[in-house]
Amino acid sequence: MKKLVSLLIIMLCGSCAVPQIVILKDPLSAEEHINLGYLYEKQGKLDLAEEEYKKAIRKDKKNYLAYFNLGNIYAQRGEYEKAERQYKKALELKEDPDVLNNLAYVLNKQGKKEEALLYIKKALEMKDDPSYRKTLEEILKKE
Question: What value does the CA radius of gyration of the chain take, rounded to a whole number of Å?
């Protein structure tokens, strides 16, 4: 069996002594981009994590985890509308209780309490998790 090798071109910049490497074919799979993004995210390198999750989506538009993780990046930044869009895309691909919980969280942050309640109740029906119950408590708090 032949191995597919990525083609690399080294370009010498006329004014620089350091060669630049250009990758013509991305050798990583969607899952590998997700794993790399997760590592960046845990290191607090959210911009790099975001790029890896976007690369994963370009590789595999049906990988719900890439959309979920991208939503997490936006939620951490307080970009709740963007996070909501990513979580909803993830849910179109897979009904996962973690996605439902996180979607409920960002909806609540946007003041969409009724919609948030629907999602968190569904998450709790699927899995009784302490973090989901905490999200429910936050939604039910009076302001």
Answer: 19
Phi/psi-derived region of residue 23, left when phi > 0, alpha when psi is between -120 and 50, beta in every other case: beta
92 Cβ contact partners less than 8 Å away, ≥ 6 residues apart: none
Q: Which residues of the chain have pLDDT under 50?
A: 1-15
Coil, strand, or helix at residue 102?
Answer: helix
In 43-129, alpha helices (H)? 46-59, 64-77, 80-93, 97-109, 113-126
Angstrom distance (rounded) from CA 94 to CA 44: 27
- SS3 assignment, position 37: helix
104-137: pLDDT as tens digits: 999 999 999 999 999 999 999 999 999 999 999 9
Q: What sign results for the dihedral spanned by CA atoms 54, 55, 60, 65?
A: negative
Helix axes 64-77, 30-42, angle to 10 degrees: 20
The closest of 39, 43, 106 to 77, measured between CA atoms, is 106
At position 30, the amino acid (one-letter code) is: A
Calculated CA dihedral for residues 33, 63, 50, 16, nearest 10 degrees: 40
100, two tokens: 């439902």
